[in-house]
Amino acid sequence: MAVDEALLETIRSGIGSRITHSLGLITGLMIRRYARAVGETNPLYYDAGYARDRGYADVVAPPNLVTAVSCWDEGAAEEDLRADGVPKAVQLVGLPTTGVRVMGGGEDMEFHSPITAGTTLVERSTMIDAELRPGRNGHFIVVSYRHEFVDDSGKTLLTSTRKVILR
């Protein structure tokens, strides 16, 4: 599939499209495993008593935990993964699933409130922009998404703007 004005217009037709899905319950074990995997040593991420003594309901999730996870179920079988290791079923709103290479292009995060163990999260993702840019090896498209992570009461805990590059 050619990365050109025609593909850009197809993608732009999805601007404003939103998907919402539950990430489920964020557990203490999930937080501790992620913190350990990224080399965090802050006791807020491991010790519930320490976190409670500092005014939190339970252990606190490292800042980028919820944005770093691309799939919140048990994971796909190897034959159901793309060459880059992302599940084939993972679909970004408005993007083609075949014929282009999809890469991360950066992310800005705004933290509104800490996410603690025991929080049930929902992610709302909206395509907000798409543009065609020239590159050394041809054109590429940059698509921007806004992700809002809210608790079960609807309170926004984290907002991110993520860019995805199509080549």
Automatic annotation (TrEMBL):
CDD domains: R_hydratase_like
Domain FAS1-like dehydratase: 15-158
Pfam families cross-referenced by the UniProt entry: FAS1_DH_region
Organism: Nocardia speluncae
Protein name listed in UniProt: MaoC family dehydratase
InterPro entries to which the protein is assigned, alphabetical: FAS1-like_DH_region, HotDog_dom_sf
